[in-house]
Amino acid sequence: MTSSGNNSAARAWTIRRLFRKRVARFWKEQRQVWGTVVDWVVLCYLLFPALIGGVVYAGWWADPPAWMASAPLWAAQLPPMLLAVGARFRTFAEDADMLFLVQRGEWRRGLLLYGFAYTAAGLAVPGLLIYALLLPVLMGVHGMQLSHVALLLAAAWSVSLAGAVWRNRIHGRFRGWRKEACIGAVNVMLILALLLPSLLSAGAQAAAWLGCALAGVGAALLLLRGKLRQDGDFASDVRLEHLARLSGTALLVRDVVQRKPLIRLDKPLVFRRSQRLFRSGAPSVVLAESALKSFLRQWLMIRYWISFLSLGLFAVSQSPLFAQIALALGIPLLVNMMIQNHILNFAGEAFVRQFRWEDGNLRKAGERLRLWLVAPIALMLGAVAGYDAFGFLGLMAGTLLSAAYLWFVNNLTSAFGRLRATRSD
């Protein structure tokens, strides 16, 4: 009876069910990996460029900047080129397949076909996103019809799909410099296939893109046919799948893991000594000063701060008035949250906690630090938005309104901190 149950369970497994289970497990692993580092603070940092990008995108439709009008059509093909040279053919092969699936040709071919369909669908998503972002350039500046944009998308998608299968086959057949040379040659061919139709006259571009799309689909199917008949690249497929599964983890730890066990004595860029910055010896001033030096000694925090400032100024200068107001209000709020998170982490360090700071001193130190680090960004954004809309008088008004808004946000953050502390007690 047990044997019959095992046989029925084995018959219940199909190629589709096996492939679906492997895909679900892959995405579950990726969700668990990213879940270890993504919290609400990180989501706020990710929301910031998305907010700026959305506002700038809307501004491009309403009023395209001058540099966009002078951009050639072939420049719009640069993002799809990155997709074409970076696409991967996912086979979802595993080491244990050597025991059974390699011996069953129909199962191996079935998984390859499902992997081909998965790769094609996966490449369509970033392709749609890329060309959706390029619509202000393609349609607003170059006056392309939506059908021509669809041909561009089809060409980029088919060329990327063919390149993914082609590079997979090269990995299975060559090693060393031959493999790198072949992959480089393939990437050059893919780039030329996407670039050359954009250099033709306007009347011949549509036919060239259609031919490129059809040629890409044909090449992808021919390469897939050869892949189905080729039996000696199973080890290569397993190795490539290991790299694909570990790509998320490698991205997260690229700045954490030391590649070489070298002893490095790094010094901060600023405040290498423990000199005082302010004469006042008030506890809140001393704590705020120490937190400020801790912030400026961390290149990652400085990079975040500079990114908020530079991207914010760029977005405000390229956006209409309603978007400028939204950015001038939203960006200082995000920076305020970042600084508040820094002061809380700093106050929670063991060396700082041993001095037993009073709650009033912590609150005043947080107010000072937020004022020092948020004020430059808030005032500059308000000044740029006001000057762009109303000239010199707008600059003065924008600066004053930003100062008042900063004072309100700073006090609101302190009040929220006191309320949270009261509830915790």
UniProtKB/TrEMBL annotation:
Keywords carried by this UniProt record = Membrane, Transmembrane, Transmembrane helix
Report the source organism: Paenibacillus methanolicus
Q: Which InterPro entries does this one have?
A: EcsB_ABC (IPR010288)
TM segment ranges: 37-60, 66-89, 110-134, 146-166, 181-200, 206-224, 302-319, 325-348, 369-387, 393-413
Protein biosynthesis in keyword set? no
Q: Does the keyword Transmembrane helix apply?
A: yes
Q: Which Gene Ontology cellular-component terms appear in the entry?
A: membrane
Lineage, highest ranks first: Bacteria, Bacillati, Bacillota, Bacilli, Bacillales
Name the domain of life.
Bacteria
How is this protein named in the record? ABC-2 type transport system permease protein
